[in-house]
Write a structure and sequence with these properties.
With about 325 residues, the chain is mainly alpha-helical. Helix content is about 60%, strand content about 5%.
Length: about 325
């Protein structure tokens, strides 16, 4: 989820690394009240993406995938970051367009429907999401993603929300029990084709080319997800065997397992995880540092973070 958030935001020009995001998350830092030098605005955008997706996944447990849920998710996505002045959670009331920075609407690459047609378009899209169809679900998701991007219903955040919609639909249609497949890595590495093929549907009705591109991406990212999962599993088993041979306590095994959810930790994180004293948590961290599993980050001892570098390396390698 973190990698998807980082890459989907990168497509929109947000420059934040996955390591920066994990480092901010370490220690369960609260974003509210933190000054910009502590958390860069670009990192906040990625963190908002994660929070928005988590919020949406929780909401679909009790609320159908609907326009209401999409608006709520959009409000979380833009809360307190770039675009927050663009009426988060509300459909646009003015004309927008896609074009080069600083260009006029007459120079636009694509002009979405006028504002007074947005709600009607979204209503039709919502009905299609829940309608029965002879098309395979993955094909329908490709069509829905295009249509959402073509409507461009918000003043900002449409690209990220449209890609987030793919993750939600994979669960909505029962293709995955959890959001395990993310396409932003594929879209980012094929960014020009991604935009050109979406535009090709609008200008030429080139649906088949877009759907084939989308399905190729699903196949590629599915294989990449399996490969990454296998590497992480093998690394986890290697580390567990390493500390077991050293007859270390079961607490170290629990910390190791936690590193595969959050590869940056603080002593405070370990203390909360194990429900032990600060000294005991520090002892566990020191043990993992000596084992080469964790390494300290930065020179300051205050709220020092520790990184599971091998996990980060697997997560950031090219698919």
């Amino acid at each position: 989820m973190t990698k998807e958030a980082q890459l989907s935001s990168l497509i929109e020009g947000t420059q934040a690394t996955i390591e920066e995001v994990y480092e901010v998350q370490a220690g369960q830092l609260q974003l509210d009240g933190m000054s910009p030098p502590q958390v860069r605005s670009e990192v906040r955008e990625v963190l908002n993406y994660i929070l928005a997706l988590e919020t949406a996944l929780a909401r679909v447990e009790t609320l159908p995938l609907s326009l209401r849920l999409i608006r709520e998710t959009h409000a979380v996505l833009l809360r307190g970051v770039r675009g927050q002045e663009q009426t988060p959670g509300e459909s646009r009331t003015s004309q927008n367009f896609i074009g080069a920075p600083g260009s006029a609407i007459l120079e636009a690459t694509y002009v979405p429907p006028p504002a007074n047609e947005v709600m009607g378009c979204l209503d039709i899209l919502e009905k299609y999401i829940h309608a029965t169809s002879d098309l395979r679900s993955l094909v329908r998701i490709a069509l829905i993603h295009y249509q959402f991007e073509a409507i461009h219903p918000f003043r900002d955040g449409n690209g990220r929300l449209g890609r987030m919609l793919i993750s939600l639909l994979l669960q909505e249609y029962g293709l995955l029990p959890h959001p395990l497949l993310y396409l932003s890595a594929y879209f980012e590495s094929n960014r020009k084709a991604y935009y050109d093929l979406l535009l090709g549907v609008s200008q030429q009705g080139a649906w088949e080319a877009w759907v084939r591109f989308f399905l190729d991406g699903v196949a590629l990212q599915a294989a990449a997800a399996v490969s990454i999962a296998q590497k992480l599993r093998d690394l986890r088993n290697e580390w567990r065997d390493q500390v077991s041979r050293a007859r270390a306590s079961a607490n170290l095994l629990r910390v190791i397992d936690a590193l595969f959810a959050t590869p940056y930790v603080t002593v405070g994180d370990v203390q909360r995880l194990l429900e032990v004293t600060d000294a005991a948590a520090r002892y566990s961290v020191d043990k993992l540092v000596k084992a080469g599993i964790l390494e300290p980050v930065g020179s300051s001892n205050y709220r020092r973070r520790y990184r599971a570098t091998a996990v980060i390396r697997i997560l950031t390698e090219a698919p």
